[in-house]
Every structure is written in structure tokens, then in C-alpha cells.
Design a protein that fits this description.
alpha/beta, single chain, 15 helices, six-stranded mixed beta sheet
Length: 553
């Protein structure tokens, strides 16, 4: 008889920032926690989003009972439309989280057939073998939750993304009482957020930002333009409060900012009196000292609001003398250069910019070491698995748990796809399931793979040379060409010698084949490609992609 076991299957989010998705399986029941995206690296040319490969879920479709969401950030909900198109499971989450998911499903035209199930914090969803309790936590987006998953083997506590803020903007603190009560009951496995494990001490309260903003607003003479994460509704609330205190109208700029602020106001998470909200098109009707613009682009993204304003390509907002820009976010790892570029550009335009290095205008939504220690001390789990973070974060979180008294053999630092299987008397981590990534490019999902990306990288690095030749297959002669077209290799007008030599080599190679009455286009193309590549590397020390095109007439 097969022994009873509980499987925790990370399908994304371990050893990386983003793309968070985990399956928990007991007997014939699977629940999915979150369904996030990650953003492409610089070498993923043309890719818009990276989503998890859910082959394991598709192979076990009949066991899946639902998706349970911790909160509404893109790295936790961004892939949901792509997942639901393949597996239409019920999706459970708090009102704001589902409000943001709803927007995505509308864009993908699948809202009508989707099954969204709103829950309140404190509520428990009962399945046949599993029960899932939503526990309120503080994070940089409202309505965030930890999940307690009750299984016949014991309780799993998944913290989601969280921090411990004793003075949160909406008054909803991380429910330490409930977490402590679960610790008393006995927790089999703790899965905890590792993003900020390297930071010592305790994170700063979101409320301190409000005080800083009010002080900055009190001295501002012109328009104030604040760039922040569209999902940080608490930050938006504080910007709105400071604006109202100094009699400024508020305009939202950027598609995600407009969408999320509307959802948040409709659901009662963002409170701004109607007479203080103006359309971005009406900004110029008001005196500069009476206007605040809240925009996207705090990460320096080239197409987002802040960059467009900085580089003068925004269709509605142009920089005015006296403008004050506030970047109320810190750069996500890898975005530092983009942010720096935008800040420099704004200073060049002669306006003032306030950013994290100068003032306390951003705090993190993730727990620092002392907050993580508190959770570990309250929960006292039998087993611990760090989640959400690059491998170094998981490793540091493992070390922290061991310092707090856990046995090293009870702490599991896993990779995406590695299964944590817990049975009555032992834990096994030797099994793996298929995982991976799918690239979303435009409306194509998964049609750009590693080979296409390699080609794009090669084209970006060395460019391309296309050689077109027309031949007469009746009398084995060249009728037209060779013509040479280059892109991203050399500027043709200034390198006529090289281009002429490429034509000459191509002609020689084609004629050699025709003399031997060879008409197989593959042989013709290969001989042209080899000779041209050899010449170009010898001459320029570059390896452009060479594409011979042979036409028969």
C-alpha cells in the first residue's frame, strides 16, 4: 500500500524574483497558490512577459480544486489569464485581489466563463481533504493574506508576501494573534517570504512616508509629479492625503495607474473626494501649485509615464520650470541603470527630483530579519521551506532558521520543480516535476523559445547579411544578382569594398556549383554561407547571420 504523503510542488518563484506559483497535493486534491509572472531580462529581446510552464498541472487537471491568491501583485497574479485559458479552476481571493484579476480577465475576454470566489480574511474554504484559511497580513498592497492549509498530515503556513507594520495605513495589521495560535496548535511546515532576509533590523512603517510627503508638499511651489508602483494603494492614499492637505487636485497618469486607482476607489480601498480628482487632460486648466500628478514608470521603463515625461514624448504632460518630481519606489534589482537615466534626464531639464537616496520616500513591503525572526518564533514549525527569492535569499533564510534553533535536516532549500514530499515518518526531496518558462511576445504565448531568442541575440550582436541570387536552371547560369542587403552589420554606403567582395565571393560559389550542374538549393546556400562567413570574420572579426536566398527562374 502506498504510504500517505503530502506534496509541496514549487512551479516557480524559487531561485528567482517573481513568477510565484506553488501546487500543494494530497491524495486526489491539488490546490494552486498564486499564478505570477516575471519580467524579461535584457537579453530576452522582444519578450513582454515570462510566465510559468504549467505542464504538471495540465497532466493532473482532474485533481485541481482551485487557485488561492495571497495578494494582487503582478508576480503573484499576472499569469492567471494564461493559466485559466488552459485550466478553468475556481479562483479564491480577497476583494481587491480579485478586482485586479477581473481587469486582466476582461482584457483577455474570459471574465464571463471564469469562476472568481471572493473571500474575507479569517474565512476558511473547505475541500474534501484540505481546508484553506485566509489570514490578514500587511504588505505594500492592501488585502494581502497568508494562507493556513489544513491537511490530514498537519498545517502548512504560507506567509505570502508580508511585513510587520504596527501602524499600517488602513489599520489592518498582520494578524500575529492568529499566527501565534497556529504555532500553539503545531505547524508542520512554514513557507515564508525571503525577499528581504539580507536586511538587518526592522522595516520602516509605511506611515513615515506620509510625514515625509507632507513636509515635501508644504514647500513645493509648482506641480508635483510622483512616480510610484500602481499597485501600492497605501502609497497612493498618502500622496492623495498630502495633496488634499495642500489643496492640490490629483490626476492619475498611465494605464495601470488609472485602472488600479479606479478599482481601488470603487471597492473602497482608496479614499479621494470626487472634487479633488481631475482628468489628466485637464491638468493645464489649473495653476501649477494646485496640481499633483501620480504616474507610472518608477522603474524607469522606457514606455511608462515618467520616462515619456522626462524625454518629452508624453502626449499630454510636458515639463515646466518649477516642477518637482518624486520617485517613490526603489529600483527592482537590474533596473538601477534605467532609473538613474531618467533621474539624470530630469535634472538636465532643470527640475528638482527627490528619490530614495535623498529622502525617506519609499519603504519595502517585505519583512526584514527581525520580523522574520518573530514569525519563526511564533510558529515554531516542524519543517521550514524558504520561498520567494533568489537562491542567495533562500540560503540566508535557511541560515536564519537554523540560528533560531531549527535542525538543519528539517530546513529545505529547494529549486523550482523540486518536490517536497512529507510522509508520516520522513521527508523526501528527490522527486522533480517538469517546470520551465513560457515567453509572451505580443499575443503569442510560447511561440518564442530558446532557439528564437538565441537568433535574436545573435542578430542584435552582429547583425545580418542577406544575399539574393536568381539562377536559370535550364542552362545553369546566374540571371540576376548577387544583391547584398545588410542590417545591423555595417553601414553599406561606407563599406562598398566589403559589399562588393561579398558579391564576388557569392557569385564564384554559385558558379562553381552550377558548373557541376548542382541545383539543390541547400548545397548552393551552404557553400555561399560558408565562404561569406569566413571572409567577413577574417575581414571584420564579426559573425553576422548570413542568409543566402536562391531563386530559380
Amino acid at each position: 500500500m502506498e504510504r500517505e504523503s503530502l506534496k509541496v510542488i514549487p512551479l516557480g518563484g524559487l531561485g528567482e524574483i517573481g513568477k510565484n506559483i506553488t501546487a500543494i497535493e494530497y491524495k486526489d486534491e491539488i490546490i494552486v497558490i498564486d499564478g505570477g509572472i516575471s519580467f524579461p531580462d535584457e537579453d530576452m529581446y522582444g519578450v513582454d512577459l515570462v510566465i510559468p510552464d504549467i505542464r504538471y498541472l495540465l497532466e493532473n487537471k482532474n485533481k485541481i480544486k482551485g487557485m488561492f491568491l495571497t495578494h494582487g501583485h503582478e508576480d503573484h497574479i499576472g499569469a492567471i489569464p494564461y493559466i485559466l485559458k488552459q485550466i478553468n479552476m475556481p479562483v479564491y481571493g480577497t476583494r481587491l485581489t480579485l478586482g485586479l484579476v477581473e481587469n486582466k480577465l476582461k482584457e483577455h475576454n474570459i471574465l464571463r466563463e471564469s469562476k472568481l470566489k471572493p473571500v474575507r480574511t479569517g474565512q476558511t474554504i473547505k475541500l474534501e481533504n484540505l481546508k484553506i484559511e485566509f489570514i490578514g497580513v500587511t504588505h505594500s498592497i492592501a488585502d494581502s493574506c497568508a494562507l493556513a492549509i489544513y491537511t490530514p498530515m498537519g498545517i502548512i503556513l504560507h506567509t505570502g508576501d508580508f511585513k510587520i507594520d504596527y501602524t499600517p495605513i488602513d489599520g489592518r495589521m498582520t494578524n500575529l494573534n492568529r499566527i501565534a495560535a497556529l504555532g500553539k496548535k503545531g505547524v508542520l511546515l512554514l513557507m515564508a517570504d525571503s525577499t528581504n532576509v539580507e536586511r538587518h533590523g526592522h522595516s520602516i512603517s509605511e506611515k513615515t512616508i506620509g510625514e515625509t510627503l507632507k513636509r515635501i508638499f508644504s514647500g513645493a511651489k509648482g506641480r508635483i509629479i510622483v512616480a510610484t508602483f500602481a499597485s501600492n494603494i497605501h502609497r497612493m492614499q498618502q500622496i492623495a492625503d498630502a495633496s488634499i492637505a495642500y489643496n492640490r487636485k490629483i490626476a492619475f497618469s498611465g494605464r495601470s495607474m488609472e485602472n488600479i486607482s479606479e478599482v481601488a476607489m470603487n471597492l473602497g480601498y482608496l479614499h479621494v473626494p470626487d472634487d479633488y480628482i481631475i482628468d489628466i487632460k485637464e491638468v493645464n486648466k489649473y495653476p501649477s501649485e494646485e496640481v499633483t500628478i501620480i504616474t507610472t514608470g518608477s522603474q524607469g521603463e522606457p514606455m511608462a509615464g515618467l520616462s515619456r515625461i522626462a524625454y518629452g514624448s508624453h502626449r499630454l504632460i510636458s515639463i515646466e520650470p518649477g516642477d518637482l518630481f518624486i520617485i517613490s519606489a526603489s529600483p527592482i534589482p537590474g533596473n538601477d541603470k534605467l532609473v538613474s537615466r531618467v533621474i539624470n534626464q530630469l535634472f538636465r531639464k532643470g527640475v528638482d527630483v527627490i528619490y530614495e537616496d535623498l529622502e525617506e520616500i519609499h519603504v519595502s513591503g517585505h519583512a526584514y530579519q527581525e520580523e522574520l525572526k518573530l514569525i519563526h518564533s511564533l510558529v515554531k514549525p516542524k519543517y521550514f521551506m524558504p520561498v520567494h527569492g533568489e537562491y542567495r535569499h533562500l540560503k540566508h533564510h535557511r541560515d536564519l532558521a537554523i540560528k533560531l534553533g531549527m535542525m538543519p535536516e528539517n530546513v529545505f532549500t529547494l529549486e523550482t520543480g523540486q518536490v517536497l514530499e512529507i510522509s508520516e515518518d520522513r521527508v523526501n526531496t528527490s522527486k522533480t516535476v517538469h517546470t520551465g518558462v513560457l515567453f509572451v511576445d505580443g499575443i503569442g504565448v510560447g511561440d518564442v523559445g530558446n532557439i528564437v531568442l538565441r537568433d535574436r541575440r545573435d542578430l542584435a550582436k552582429d547583425g545580418m547579411v542577406t544575399i539574393v541570387v536568381a539562377i536559370n536552371k535550364e542552362n545553369y547560369s546566374i540571371v540576376a544578382g548577387p544583391d547584398v542587403i545588410t542590417r545591423g552589420f555595417i553601414y553599406a554606403r561606407e563599406a562598398e569594398d566589403i559589399i562588393n567582395k561579398v558579391k564576388e565571393i557569392s557569385k564564384e560559389e554559385v558558379e562553381k556549383c552550377l558548373e557541376k550542374e548542382i541545383l539543390e538549393w541547400q548545397v548552393l546556400k551552404n557553400s555561399v554561407r560558408r565562404s561569406v562567413e569566413h571572409f567577413l570574420y577574417h575581414k571584420t572579426k564579426r559573425n553576422p547571420s548570413v542568409f543566402p536566398i536562391i531563386m530559380e527562374v
